Amino acid sequence: MASINFNNCSFHDNSTPIGHITSSSFQVSHASQKFDEKKSFRADCIDRITVDSPLANVIITASNTHTIDIHFSGEAITSQKPTFNINQNGRELIVTLTINNCLMSRGLTLLVDIPLKTFEALNISSYNGKIEVHPNVSAKKMQLDTYHGTIKCQGDLSELYTSTHHGDTTLHIRANHNVLIEVTSHNGDVTAALENIAISKLSTTTRNGVINNDFHDICSGYIIYGRVTSHNGDITIKYNSLNKS
After folding, report:
1. CA-CA distance, 229 to 173, in Å (whole number)?
2. Can you tell me the distance from the alpha carbon of 191 to that of 162, in angstroms, rounded to the nearest whole number?
């Protein structure tokens, strides 16, 4: 089955015909649509958040609020209205955004603003979108996965698991406790700036890249465990004491 990727979207030869491609032209029957939709949910009964957004970028921020506020915006050429849902499963909030028959997209973003508290888990998955976790976002465990996108995480956490196939990963972790990280990148560089770490039990492996690890003894701080792996990218680990930041 043949498939075509175009500007972060894809369609296949067994899908509903939406145009045709020739050697000199690209004709589409879809119209461009702009999206601007907001939803909110009470946060006092939520301690786990899961976001699944295959096409849109996902940005997680934190502010002085008592609700989880979600804003979907951007533009796409598609024949169908996106499916944008939030559902509660016990103490978990599940946010899903899907767009079928999408031919082109521009600036599709799912912005999730959460309260300034420590959640049990934050799970984010995308396919063609980037993932950003801003400072002040706090969760004991974070799982960040994308295929064609970058990952940037600056949140407070105890465990971090990330994976990307085509995209760089950038981490900035200021430790307030011992930290475990598992970072996997196939065709991207990994850069991690780690602060307030006294002991490193972190392994780094790359097949076709360069490793730069500047760890040195620090009198006070916490322990970092885990591993960072890249197939075709460089790995850079930077350590700073909290007093030097």
Report:
1. 18
2. 13
